[in-house]
């Protein structure tokens, strides 16, 4: 009987030692092995996991962002919605795809995300809250700097920076670009795509719903086109169908959220005195009106993105 007790006691002791050794061994591994899979190469990333579901419920990384031949066959739902944004007499989208990508690069852009990439992006709006902000050097330090429409840099370098890697335009807001800047077209109608082709070929389109430039300086090899599927996705998933369609600034901000690892936002929102106007406007001009856009809804989404540490906003002083 005593022998059996000793055997049981020894067995219990051995089990205890094995458990202790196993726990200690696992603890030691944790000191040397990083079991956390990195989303990107930055210290913090837009796609870092969080418990709050709001972002993940809306985010869809599979939606085509920039057009190419392969993703230009948009859904019937998107086509019908998009064709109603700015109705105009024009051909079908399918009729312009071939000439479009015979002229411009037909490739899949920015599909290189991974644990080794750290792409920092500045999205620079045109708000007057940039005045006397001295953000220029900070903006220029980013890998990508997105600017909208005709927001100038010359004469405003100290506040808005000098670097521009991408400028988002549509025909009615077109400006000349230098040879190193990507022209990012936001097409709200097929005529916008025809205008883009015309700019680099016949130069014969001079009017959409009002007069447009038939020619601008830009690098043909750096042209990019926002996919209508992405515009509709931003409108429905992020703005919950508020307004008629998203603003240029909001679409580009969401593009950055989908192709960058860190996004810093400058020049969005009202000025310090609560007025909405551009940093390059004269003080006496009237405030900006949102028009077809729901500026308040867009701004609330931007604030929510910042609250969840997906982006960082710089609102001036």
UniProtKB/TrEMBL annotation:
<keyword id="KW-0964">Secreted</keyword>
<keyword id="KW-0472">Membrane</keyword>
<dbReference type="InterPro" id="IPR012163">
    <property type="entry name" value="Sialyl_trans"/>
</dbReference>
<dbReference type="GO" id="GO:0005576">
    <property type="term" value="C:extracellular region"/>
</dbReference>
<keyword id="KW-0812">Transmembrane</keyword>
<dbReference type="Pfam" id="PF00777">
    <property type="entry name" value="Glyco_transf_29"/>
</dbReference>
<comment type="subunit">
    <text>Homodimer; disulfide-linked. Homodimer formation occurs in the endoplasmic reticulum.</text>
</comment>
<dbReference type="GO" id="GO:0047288">
    <property type="term" value="F:beta-D-galactosyl-(1-&gt;3)-N-acetyl-beta-D-galactosaminide alpha-2,3- sialyltransferase"/>
</dbReference>
<keyword id="KW-0325">Glycoprotein</keyword>
<comment type="pathway">
    <text>Protein modification; protein glycosylation.</text>
</comment>
<dbReference type="GO" id="GO:0003836">
    <property type="term" value="F:beta-galactoside (CMP) alpha-2,3-sialyltransferase activity"/>
</dbReference>
<dbReference type="InterPro" id="IPR051757">
    <property type="entry name" value="Beta-gal_alpha2-3_sialyltrans"/>
</dbReference>
<dbReference type="InterPro" id="IPR001675">
    <property type="entry name" value="Glyco_trans_29"/>
</dbReference>
<comment type="pathway">
    <text>Glycolipid biosynthesis.</text>
</comment>
<dbReference type="InterPro" id="IPR038578">
    <property type="entry name" value="GT29-like_sf"/>
</dbReference>
<keyword id="KW-0333">Golgi apparatus</keyword>
<keyword id="KW-1133">Transmembrane helix</keyword>
<keyword id="KW-1015">Disulfide bond</keyword>
<keyword id="KW-0443">Lipid metabolism</keyword>
<dbReference type="GO" id="GO:0097503">
    <property type="term" value="P:sialylation"/>
</dbReference>
<keyword id="KW-0808">Transferase</keyword>
<dbReference type="GO" id="GO:0032580">
    <property type="term" value="C:Golgi cisterna membrane"/>
</dbReference>
<dbReference type="GO" id="GO:0006629">
    <property type="term" value="P:lipid metabolic process"/>
</dbReference>
<keyword id="KW-0735">Signal-anchor</keyword>
<protein>
    <recommendedName>
        <fullName>CMP-N-acetylneuraminate-beta-galactosamide-alpha-2,3-sialyltransferase 1</fullName>
        <ecNumber>2.4.3.2</ecNumber>
        <ecNumber>2.4.3.4</ecNumber>
    </recommendedName>
</protein>
<keyword id="KW-0328">Glycosyltransferase</keyword>
<comment type="similarity">
    <text>Belongs to the glycosyltransferase 29 family.</text>
</comment>
């Amino acid at each position: 009987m005593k022998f059996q007790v000793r055997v049981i006691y020894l067995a219990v002791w051995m089990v205890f030692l094995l458990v202790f050794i196993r726990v200690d061994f696992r603890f030691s591994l944790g000191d040397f092995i990083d079991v956390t899979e990195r989303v990107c190469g930055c210290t913090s990333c837009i796609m870092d996991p969080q418990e709050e579901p709001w972002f993940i419920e809306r985010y869809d990384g599979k939606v085509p962002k920039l057009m190419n031949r392969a993703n230009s066959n948009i859904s019937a739902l998107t086509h019908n919605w998009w064709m109603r944004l700015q109705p105009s007499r024009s051909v079908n989208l399918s009729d312009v795809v071939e000439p479009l990508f015979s002229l411009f690069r037909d490739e899949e852009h920015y599909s290189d995300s991974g644990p080794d990439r750290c792409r920092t992006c500045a999205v620079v709006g045109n708000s007057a809250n940039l005045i006397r902000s001295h953000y220029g050097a900070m903006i220029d330090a980013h890998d990508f700097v997105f600017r909208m429409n005709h927001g100038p840099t010359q004469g405003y370098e100290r506040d808005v920076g000098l670097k521009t890697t991408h400028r988002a335009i549509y025909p009615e807001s077109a400006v000349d670009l230098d040879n190193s800047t990507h022209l990012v077209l936001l097409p709200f109608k097929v005529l916008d795509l025809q205008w883009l082709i015309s700019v680099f070929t016949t130069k014969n389109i001079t009017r959409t719903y009002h007069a447009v430039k038939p020619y601008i300086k830009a690098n043909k090899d750096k042209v990019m086109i926002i996919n209508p599927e992405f515009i509709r996705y931003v409108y429905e998933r992020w703005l919950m169908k508020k307004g008629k369609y998203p603003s240029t600034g909001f679409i580009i901000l969401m593009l950055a959220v989908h192709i960058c690892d860190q996004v810093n936002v400058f020049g969005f929102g009202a000025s310090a005195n609560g007025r909405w106007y551009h940093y390059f406007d004269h003080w006496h001009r009237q405030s900006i009106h949102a028009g077809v856009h729901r500026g308040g809804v867009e701004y609330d989404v931007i604030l929510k993105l910042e609250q969840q540490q997906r982006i960082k906003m710089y609102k001036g002083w």
